[in-house]
Amino acid sequence: MSLFEGITFANPNLLWLLLLLPVLPAWAIWRRRKQQGSLVVSTLGGLQHIKPAYPILRHAGTVLRLLAAALLIVALARPQSALSWEDSTTEGIDIVIATDISGSMLSEDLKPNRLEAGKNIAMEFIKGRPYDRIGLVVFSGESFTQCPLTIDHDVLINLFGDISNGMIRDGTAIGMGLATAVNRLKESDAKSKVVILLTDGSNTTGSIAPVTAAEIAKEFNVRVYTVGVGTEGYAPYPVQTPFGIQYQQVPVTIDEEALTKIADLTGGKYFRATDNEKLKAIYGQIDQLEKAKIAVTHYQQKTERFFPFALAALLLLLMDFALRQTVLKGALT
């Protein structure tokens, strides 16, 4: 990197002193002439064999002092790395993930099961959106907020990892889950407010119907992306028996009509995830669909850069001193 790359000066007016440097060699020539004497002799024959010592170094002292003076002036002007800033944009929206934790989410058509697959992929989604405020709502027979909107994604991910089936009574209250998520977003000033609603069934309980919750979301300009999780047909469901875990094939009953209507009412989109890869791809699509721009300013701290110039000046002066005390001792320089 160049020594002068990104350099500014704290005292730039001192750089005008560089214009005085041409005066130094003129003054040195004048001083040398003043110090020179004259000698009248009858003939130069006896002096012709005398040659000046080290003629190349005769003006070395002047050059070294001139360069040292220039470097000292630059050092006194205090060169610094520039305090730079830039107005850039980054992605930022308010998102609430509303996830179903009902018993059917333990079905193992996704690996290791629907609930854990949804958690793992959602946590990866969160890590990829560092500038968003994200919250978490869980629902089963009822709903509650596991984490309000936050930019502290480490806390959010820890709380996400703690959710499990059985935290609340069983059932599938899709409308309640959506309404709770919208309630978390209604006071938001963000230009883009989003709910990602993930479920594997149809609404079976709760005091708010899914479509009613969708209409509330629309009133608050909340866009809802709905995700139906589960394979086609039947899925293996673990059942505890006296002989250990046994698997039953249970029908997959996702109310795709209701989920599609919720998405359409709010300007979102409905997705169907039949395996882990499709669920991951769905989060990727949502990530690309939601791109709200916010301004971010980046600052860079100033760093003093005068030391290399001062050190170089000192070295040149030491070289000048060494020359005058050795090979040029007694000479006019």
From TrEMBL:
InterPro entries reported in the protein's UniProt record: Aerotolerance_reg_N, UPF0353/GerABKA_families, vWA_BatA_type, VWF_A, vWFA_dom_sf
Pfam families tied to this protein: BatA (PF07584), VWA (PF00092)
SMART domains, A to Z: VWA
Residue span, VWFA domain: 94-286
Domain of life the protein comes from: Bacteria
TM region(s), chain numbering: 306-323
PROSITE patterns in alphabetical order: VWFA (PS50234)
Protein name: Ca-activated chloride channel family protein
